[in-house]
Design brief:
With about 260 residues, the protein is mostly beta strands. The chain has helices at about 15, 20-25, 40, and strands at about 5, 30, 35, 55-60, 65, 75-80, 95-100, 115-120, 140-145, 160-165, 180, 200, 215-225, 225-235, 245-250.
Length: about 260
Amino acid sequence: MFQFPVEAQSISPDNFAGKTQEEIAKSPAWEGNKQRALSELFEIDGESTDKPEDVSIQVHGDVHRVKRIGFAMTAGEIIIYGDAGVHLGEEMKGGRISVGGSADSWLGAMMKDGTIEVKGDAGDCVGAAYRGSVKGMQGGTIIIHGSAGNELGNFMRKGLIKVYGNAAQFAGLHMKNGTILIVGHSDGRVGAEMTGGKIIVNGKLNEVLPTFLIDSIKPKVKVDGDEVAGPFYTFVGDTVEEGEGKLYVSKTANPHLKFYEQFL
């Protein structure tokens, strides 16, 4: 376990490709306010290849305090067997990242392509835009088998996020396009200020924001070519932003929303 947070964006197939083990070992990283070589922080073994798409990086041990692994990677594979730190796969452009444990906040922030799969939970701001930016996730796929924190897909513009557990508040905040599937429950304020895209909540949602209008009841919804069985209450919004986003909420899991049927 590291005593101080580590900045290790050099752990990337793009950086390792075409380098010898000795050259990889000399790649820079920051531990707290001190610059280190990767070999001072990690035990490095194996051989690299010339092309990023042929590189497979396997990370063993506790790296939940290691930031920015896979930063802007374009190809190849990173496998983390435990928990991962913040900003994993940020600005990712291709390739695949797999996490055997959980991931901290800002997972796949502003990613453009590629796939990230997390077997455990994820923190806040998955696939989100940086503070002050309006460009969140612009492509690719994020799959979370556990639950996710607040502001899932904030300013999302394209791509797919699947959460098989629950999602905290403000999923799809400022969403422009793309798809978010929440198989479990959501804490609320889903789709606040969204203008496009679609969000599916297959579990319980305590309330729908009053700035969303009931549109219809759908028997099923398509997500990435697959059908998710309903029925779903279908809402359009956020009207405060003149939005045309679609919010699908399970009718079966939310009998308290039945009163909306009078407006159909």
